[in-house]
Amino acid sequence: MADKILKPVEKTADPIISQIGDFRRYHLFFFFLILLCKFGSGWHTLGHIFLAAPTPESCKTENVTDVCCKDCEEVEFDTSVFQSTIATEWNLICALKPLVSMSQSIVMAGIMFGGMTFGMLGDRFGRRPAFLTCCFMQLITGLIVCVSPYFWFYCLFRFLVAFATGGTMTISFVLLMEIIGPSKRELIAILYQIPFNIGHASLAVFAYFIRDWRWFQFAITIFSVVFVVYIWLVPESPRWLFSTGRLDKAIRILEKIAKCNKAPTETVRPEIEAAYAVKTALQPLKKGNVLDLFRTPYLRLKTICMATNWLVTCMVYYGTAQYVSQLGGDIFVNNLIAAVVGIPGTCLCVVLTKYLGRKKTLILSNFLCALGLFLLACLFNFGSVAQVVCATLGLFGASISFPNVYLYGGELFPTVVRSNGMGLCSMVGRVGSVIAPYICDLKVFGGWIAPVVFGIFCVLAIICTLFIPETRGLPLPESLEDGEQFGRKQKK
Q: Closest by alpha carbon to 103, among 220, 219, 207, 217?
């Protein structure tokens, strides 16, 4: 009777998916479990909007109006909207005002280095230890930020929070991609981005009710206590174990997953051992590192082109979001607009990548970005409504690109260097997010310059995408040799 309720698994070229199925009960549970860490990514990456919210200041010295004048002996902040921010806490005004923007650049740098570092650790020591480390590091350092006594102490621990956040973003995505089958991979990879958008939007809700920066930081950090459940519920990636020759551990995990999915378990060991024997006979076992992404010509080309797309996507998304959020009006409403527009774009990406493929979708979304930004440059003097419409079109295109580059990169890089590849792309992407505010500052030389610069980068991304092969519905490359051959005149 027990055998009758088992659901046979369709055998494919992928030895892992052939044991646990494409997408069943356990996959759904694991997906929602991993999503919990994605909310914090949005909160910690963009929390600066309210941690350093604009707080008008005035000089209390009689007959002195300029707060930056040396005759101004006492400065008063307008706390009618925000009771305290990092600017009011440490008097970051006048000559010290650039430190406010610099503190956010430090955050982006932390995400950049964290994604790369934990990506390498994930490939070297396993996805699970790297994932648990960055999750708990995010919780602990985030709480320490709340009690920062000095500005530079605040910057240091915000950097460490961001460092851990970059790790969670990279490793959590790799964990998902290595267990989901091709039929649902694009759907899961794209829906994985929704909590980031929700986290971004919910910042306005937190800030509306919590006007003190220390309690605001506490509120967006304390949720990470749920990471404790990961100790028991997140196993090592069976694909990583298989690729690195740890067959016994891989088989035990696959048998548990197969049992949860009501799939046969008695065939797991013989089929995995047979698949590994074939794999090692064809190509010797070899661990990878970030340099392996550049050793062979075709893998090097694909890596550079994918990294360029990450650079452009992050640059345009954060740059355009900053433009929308800086429009006159209510800061809470502006933040909601910048965040909510990403949700329909992310949902549309599901449909486009499924039916058009990753490559055509990325070309289309970059084209929408370029179109909106070039129109913004041309219509810059036609009023605020035209500016908002054009900027929103550019941001909408970027919101389609953002989840797609995650999906595309996760499928493009071989297993032995997948974390390294995703970490490298994340690092390059954060370079784009770091320089985006400085591109926006070019408006002092002309309002049309920044949109044109962003638009030119979008065109560059389109050109690079032409050199990346389509990955929809294909087995994930495992070895470095697979990564070099992947996309070379594949026979249908």
A: 217
| Chain segment 50-89, per-residue pLDDT in tens | 888 878 888 877 777 777 877 777 778 888 888 888 888 8
At 19, the amino acid letter reads Q
Residue 1 pLDDT level (bands cut at 50, 70, 90): very low
Q: Is residue 484 part of a domain?
A: yes
Whether 47 maps to a domain, the answer reads yes
Q: pTM of the predicted model, to two decimals?
A: 0.79
Residue 158: which CATH number?
1.20.1250.20
Chosen domain end from 250, 284, 318? 284
C-beta of residue 422 within 8 angstroms of C-beta of residue 410: yes
Q: 134 is written with which tokens?
A: 């960055």
Residues facing residue 59 across a β-bridge: 75
Q: Are residues 327 and 181 in the same domain?
A: no
**Residue-level length of the chain:** 492
Q: How far apart are CA 134 and CA 129, in angstroms?
A: 9
Whether residue 276 is found in the same domain as residue 147 = yes
Token code pair at residue 313: 């996507």
In-domain check, residue 3: no
Residue 203 near residue 335, CB atoms below 8 Å? yes
Domain endpoint, select from 284, 307, 340: 284
Domain span including residue 401: 287-492
Give residue-wise pLDDT tens across range 355-368. 888 999 999 999 99
3 state SS of 84: strand
Residue matched to tokens 């470095």: 480
Residues with Cβ within 8 Å of 95's Cβ and at least 6 positions away in sequence, in order, are: 68
**Secondary element (H or E) of residue 29:** helix 25-46
> What is the number of domains present in the chain?
2
DSSP, residue by residue, 318-375: HHHHHHHHTSSS-HHHHHHHHHHTHHHHHHHHHHHHHHT-HHHHHHHHHHHHHHHHHH
Check whether residue 435 and residue 371 sit in a common domain. Answer: yes
